Amino acid sequence: MSPADDFLHNLLRGGPSGASTVLILQEMRAAGRSREALAPAIEGLRRHPQNSELRLLLAELLLEQGFISLAERELQHLNAALRNLSRAFKLQAQIHLQQGNFIAAQQALDAYLAHRPEDP
Based on the domain organization, do 73 and 44 belong to the same domain? Predict the structure, then answer.
């Protein structure tokens, strides 16, 4: 194991923040070590279950390694979170309307409806 690899593994063992975990795992992935990054990604997500970037990276790593159903499961979690947060677009549309910015309001509402097409 190279000194750089050793350094990354020591960082991961220390339980870094979610953002730091993502950076380390992206570095491993860029170095062609996607398979090796899987276990730390799963552990990182256990420690930081609300970290969407980490969940997305895990889904990408899983897909690269051929674990399609596991990648899909992670994406379902992300999609549910996005759907819940899509209310922010509706609120943004209301703000733009109050400001008289109808084009921006329409764009925000379109983004909201992309996630919640059933909303009248």
Answer: yes
Which spans in 14-119 are helix H?
A: 18-30, 34-47, 52-64, 68-85, 87-98, 102-115
Are the C-beta atoms of 18 and 48 separated by less than 8 Å?
yes
* Residues 26 and 63 reside in one and the same domain: yes
> What is the pTM for the complete model shown?
0.77
CA distance 24 to 37: 9
Structural domain span for residue 47: 3-85
Give the distance from CA 2 to its chain's centroid: 29
pLDDT in tens, 57-114: 999 999 999 999 999 999 999 999 999 999 999 999 999 999 999 999 999 999 999 9
d(CA 11, CA 88): 35
